[in-house]
Design goal:
With about 375 residues, the protein is of the alpha/beta class. The chain has two domains: about 160 residues, Rossmann fold (3-Layer(aba) Sandwich); about 160 residues, 2-Layer Sandwich (Dihydrodipicolinate Reductase, domain 2), CATH 3.30.360. It is built from eleven helices and 15 strands. Strands 14-13-12-11-7-10-9-8-15 form a nine-stranded mixed beta sheet. A six-stranded parallel beta sheet has the order 3-2-1-4-5-6, with helices on both faces. α2 links the parallel β2 and β3. The longest helix is centred in the C-terminal third of the chain and has 19 residues. Bound molecules: nicotinamide-adenine-dinucleotide. Nicotinamide-adenine-dinucleotide (NAD) binds next to loops.
């Protein structure tokens, strides 16, 4: 398979290294409009080819394109890639607007092309183990998520800290509790340096069972914390990504209230039992993600992390931004895929696509 990778900044080299190590990948072309970045990449991976203009990369006979540029450019590049018949991998967050995400999903579906969104955490051993524990009912009914992702982080130029960091935690949450429905959110944040918030908090309410989720993200923290509590009514789990060996700890503890009378008298019974730390697979997540992308192309099926997953998160991010700009306003969430895309636009795109297809040969 021939791969094109657009964007060779901070994250791009990780993608290049992982695709480079897959034996089914016949060639890699890397594009960045920064010539110095391309020289650096060439010095690390001498057998790749490089391109300054992504449109020239899209004209090449390649099968799949990875978009690893800042989020503001994802939609345009991904759309052009789909219209030239390429399968696409788009970095998180999928797009800067939900209607753009919907349009890309439609173009990919109508042209039978794979659309992968890089929610990398779902390919980690820790998240896979959490999924296993939650799916087999060990935690019971999930009652809350509480997540902290803070450090002296890399400021993104075009988005705030919620757009940059919460897609990781939101993708984990959606993966772990696919049967629960987010109903509304509130968000607040502060921008100390420019117009983009560098510290923020996001709270989600669910339709079911008073479930609640809270995310705290910060690019300006003196310490690095990557912790998530997933609490069930039977057991609770802590995922600490800064731990090397014991990333997950399952606590057999909780709160039991025998009768309503007890609540009034504040006689709450605490249950504290054993704690254990399960073994977690150590394989690099990005390598599994890259293999899943290629496998989904070969098997002509939806990848594990696809456009619809990306869209749900963009809908949350958009609503969070609206809430922040309106002093923590509660915003209702409908994670449905509403087909607002202009059908005329899709029709035109399809014609362009067919014309392109005639010019080149694809898989
Ligand atoms: N999955 C993850 O865990 C993860 C981690 C970090 C970043 N990311 C995502 O990866 C993307 C890139 O982030 P980054 O931190 O590497 O950004 P970056 O700014 O360090 O790198 C982006 C690169 O893209 C190049 N570029 C921008 N527009 C271009 C264009 N039109 N044509 C060619 N080159 C172009 C820039 O020159 C730059 O080298 C973002 O969407 C980010 O959210 C994902």
């Amino acid at each position: 398979m021939k791969i094109g990778i657009i964007g060779a900044g901070y994250w791009g080299p990780n993608l290049i290294r992982n695709f480079h190590s897959i034996k089914e990948v016949a060639s890699i072309t890397v594009c960045d409009f920064d010539e110095e970045r391309l020289e650096y990449i060439k010095s690390k991976f001498p057998n790749i080819t490089t391109e300054l203009d992504y449109k020239k990369l899209l004209d090449k006979n390649i099968d799949a394109v990875v978009v690893a540029t800042p989020v503001g450019s994802h939609y345009q590049i991904a759309k052009e890639a789909l219209l030239s018949g390429k399968h696409i991998w788009v970095e998180k967050p999928f797009t800067a607007k939900s209607n753009h995400a919907e349009e890309l999903i439609k173009i990919a579906e109508e042209n039978d092309l794979r659309l992968f969104v890089d929610h990398t955490f779902l390919y980690t051993g820790a998240v896979r183990k959490m999924k296993e524990i939650i799916s087999n009912g060990e935690l019971g009914n999930i009652i809350y998520f509480d997540s902290v992702r803070i450090n002296l982080g890399l400021f993104q130029h075009d988005v705030n800290v919620i757009w940059d960091l919460t897609p990781h935690d939101l993708s984990i949450m959606y993966y772990l509790i696919p049967d629960k429905t987010v109903s509304s959110l509130t968000a607040c944040g502060v921008s100390n340096f420019n117009e983009h918030e560098n510290i923020a908090q996001l709270s989600l309410n669910f339709k079911e069972d008073n479930c609640f989720a809270h995310f705290h993200v910060n690019w300006t923290s003196p310490i690095k914390i990557r912790k998530m509590i997933v609490a069930g009514d039977k057991k609770m789990l802590v995922f600490d990504d800064m731990e090397n060996s014991e990333k997950i700890k399952v606590y057999d503890c909780g709160v039991e209230i025998k009768s309503k009378e007890c609540i009034h008298k504040m006689l709450v019974q605490y249950r504290t039992g054993d704690m254990y730390s399960p073994k977690v697979m150590q394989t690099e997540a990005l390598s599994l993600a890259a293999k899943e992308f290629l496998q989904s192309i070969i098997e002509k099926r939806e990848p594990l992390t696809n456009g619809r997953d990306g869209l749900k998160i963009v809908q949350i991010l958009e609503a969070a931004e609206h809430s922040i700009k309106n002093n923590g306003l509660t915003v209702k969430i409908d994670n449905g895929f509403n087909h607002k895309t202009n059908p005329e636009m899709i029709k035109k795109d399809k014609v362009e696509f067919k014309n392109n297809r005639r010019k080149k040969s694809f898989v």
